[in-house]
Amino acid sequence: MLDDKILPNGPFAIVTDLEPSPEAPVPTNNSSALPVDPNSPGFELKYTLSGHRKAVSVLKYSPDGKLLASGAADKLIKLWDTYTGHLLSTLEGHNEGINDLAWSVDSVYVASASDDKSIRIWSAESGTTVRELQGHTNFVFCVNYNPHSNLLASGGFDETVRIWDVARGRTMRVLPAHSDPVTAVMFNYDGSLLASAAMDGLVRVWDSESGQCIRTLVDDDAPVCSHVKFSPNSQFVLISTQDSTLRLWSVEQSRCVKTYTGHANRTYCIPASFGRGRAKWVVSGSEDHKVYIWDLQTRQVVQVLEGHRDVVLAVAVHPKANMIASAGMEKDLAIKIWVNAPPVDSAADVVGEAPVS
């Protein structure tokens, strides 16, 4: 494990690394041959996917990087080939719109959270429902697989977080987590911690085994928390809030160490993520129809991706390649795939790291 530290320099604190020790590099054939400066992203549009009839609410790459799952208000889930853009299957079964998706660590199953108050577990290969989880009493807004067990976490408008035994199809634990709807749940890399975010402005960090809350992270102004994501080394969480700000918090120190601004987010729950490659980036959609990329250290916007015609509600970062997927709402409905060419000598940085999703 790398020695990960935060140097105490106020708002310019240096986060020396967010990653666990990288795995052995894996060759890839899916990036441009032209090298770019690793500190200056040069994402370009590769292709545009269409098929959903209502707002695309979520995009998730499978951990092996081969598939992209999209969910929308049209009640449908679509599975796409990551590298060709071909539509492979459409999953039908929910009675209301899709709010979130989560892949099992082996990329075999995808879980979906819906306004119909249910969670479905789908076989990616057959496109059929293999399990339906019932228990939430209101919209299910978020879902996430534990990467090291058969457990699933979900959150909803009933203000609870539920932990599920997927194999048995039953609730193992109900956490009275928040006083407002739960907008995001996220396990850390080894599955030992679970973070939940909510409209009450709180992010809580839970011990996955005991169900005890071990940290509560809250800003002085307590803006609505739209999304939370662990860094791969589990030492930080990236929190999206509806005051047009992203905040990077140290979990151990329970303090915000960096903020990222420039995008627009005051209405919708828009997720943010960590980028890939030698240079560390932060990526988010925006209500001004754009995708923003920040330098993790300097907090400066280093690239803005334009082309959508409505709010960019969903953004996903590929777990291995230098690729971003983004999707827009009703006036757009497009899923756009953006690719950044990695320098030849940094292939290990781009394709050899542990997955973050």
UniProtKB/TrEMBL annotation:
<keyword id="KW-0853">WD repeat</keyword>
<feature type="region of interest" description="Disordered">
    <location>
        <begin position="17"/>
        <end position="37"/>
    </location>
</feature>
<dbReference type="GO" id="GO:0048188">
    <property type="term" value="C:Set1C/COMPASS complex"/>
</dbReference>
<feature type="repeat" description="WD">
    <location>
        <begin position="175"/>
        <end position="216"/>
    </location>
</feature>
<dbReference type="InterPro" id="IPR019775">
    <property type="entry name" value="WD40_repeat_CS"/>
</dbReference>
<dbReference type="Pfam" id="PF25175">
    <property type="entry name" value="Beta-prop_WDR5"/>
</dbReference>
<feature type="repeat" description="WD">
    <location>
        <begin position="49"/>
        <end position="90"/>
    </location>
</feature>
<keyword id="KW-0677">Repeat</keyword>
<feature type="repeat" description="WD">
    <location>
        <begin position="133"/>
        <end position="174"/>
    </location>
</feature>
<dbReference type="InterPro" id="IPR015943">
    <property type="entry name" value="WD40/YVTN_repeat-like_dom_sf"/>
</dbReference>
<dbReference type="InterPro" id="IPR059122">
    <property type="entry name" value="Beta-prop_WDR5-like"/>
</dbReference>
<dbReference type="InterPro" id="IPR020472">
    <property type="entry name" value="WD40_PAC1"/>
</dbReference>
<protein>
    <submittedName>
        <fullName>WD40 repeat-containing protein</fullName>
    </submittedName>
</protein>
<feature type="repeat" description="WD">
    <location>
        <begin position="91"/>
        <end position="132"/>
    </location>
</feature>
<dbReference type="InterPro" id="IPR001680">
    <property type="entry name" value="WD40_rpt"/>
</dbReference>
<feature type="repeat" description="WD">
    <location>
        <begin position="260"/>
        <end position="304"/>
    </location>
</feature>
<dbReference type="InterPro" id="IPR036322">
    <property type="entry name" value="WD40_repeat_dom_sf"/>
</dbReference>
<dbReference type="GO" id="GO:0042393">
    <property type="term" value="F:histone binding"/>
</dbReference>
<feature type="domain" description="WDR5-like beta-propeller">
    <location>
        <begin position="48"/>
        <end position="338"/>
    </location>
</feature>
<feature type="repeat" description="WD">
    <location>
        <begin position="228"/>
        <end position="259"/>
    </location>
</feature>
